Amino acid sequence: MKIIHSIITLLFFGLIIQSCGDQPEKKKSAFGDVNYKKETKSESTSTKVASAEVESEESEGAAGQPDEQIAVAKKLISSTDNDLVKSVDAKKIFKNYCAICHGRKGNMQINGSKDLSKTNTSLAQRVAQIYFGRGTMTPFKGIIKDEEVIAVAQYIDELKK
Ligand code: HEC
Predict the structure, then answer these.
(1) Band of the pLDDT at 6, cuts 50, 70, 90?
(2) Which domains are seen in the chain, by residue range?
């Protein structure tokens, strides 16, 4: 505590000495500098946001998942044990991971997410999209298990009813 106190005292005296020696104009420009730096910092963050928006706009244009992703999805579907898929509580997975954007009934369409209660995507397309993500939808590969990806992709049919 003593050290901190003496540091503060030193800084305080340093400031007084500096302000005595400096012209008032100079002091102003020093503060101006600080403000200027702050402004440029916030500018750079806003450009980042802008470029992220452009990116998501670009990916919105393409139709469907790329062929190689569909191929991986098909392989995943055929190689995953059906009983394992059936043992998944898909409703819970959907509630925990998907409802935040799609809503519990799949029709909330937050952040440009598609209405899942009206989707006409195939199972392989859905699995690919859940696995690899698309636009602002995050990829779930490694976040939920493969059998959970398939189960929740199947669960979307329940939402269409
Ligand atoms: C961060 C928000 C977000 C989360 C979380 C999310 N999605 Fe999406 N989802 C989206 C967006 C955005 C789209 C539209 C993407 C596009 O086409 O550019 C979408 C589209 C889809 C589609 C395609 C529908 C169609 O007709 O093209 C499916 C299927 C889908 N999501 C399933 C899921 C599942 C299942 C989960 C949970 C494992 C999930 N999503 C989690 C945002 C999200």
Answers:
(1) low
(2) 2-60 (no CATH), 65-160 (1.10.760.10)
